[in-house]
From TrEMBL:
Gene3D superfamilies referenced in this protein's UniProt entry, alphabetically: 2.20.25.10
Subunit organization: Interacts with TRM9.
Family the UniProt entry places it in: Belongs to the TRM112 family.
Pfam families xrefs: Trm112p (PF03966)
GO molecular function, one term: protein heterodimerization activity
Top-level taxon of origin: Eukaryota
Organism, as annotated: Pycnoporus cinnabarinus
Identification of the protein by name: Trm112p-domain-containing protein
Coiled-coil annotated residue ranges, if any: none
Any one GO biological process: tRNA methylation
Amino acid sequence: MVRLITHNILACHAKGCTSNNFPLQFQDVSIELREAEFNADFLRGFLPRLEWPALVGAARQLGDTSLPEEQPEMIDDEFLQKLHHVLLEIHVEEGAMVCPNCKHVYPISNGIPNMLLAEHEIG
Ligand SMILES: [Zn+2]
């Protein structure tokens, strides 16, 4: 399933596409919201590994503007609740992710991303 916690680590892997290949841009998406169990410790542990600007940008592409541009220094529960929602509760069901560099389109269908490449695109 495509959630922003997954999207945050996805870069284009087409042959020769090695720079400016992250983050993938969402296109024509339909989303579903599904409640997930809140785990503050998990979120605090995961926070340092996030590419923050990519996460904020992706959330905005999905219509969620709850996260601040800059990662706050004070990590309180209110912030963690927003982060939880953005990372884990927004599911992209249909649409595509497009590489900002080579424009390769990775389709998403029934919540499953197709990250496969054609043979000539494999590096
Ligand atoms: Zn690419």
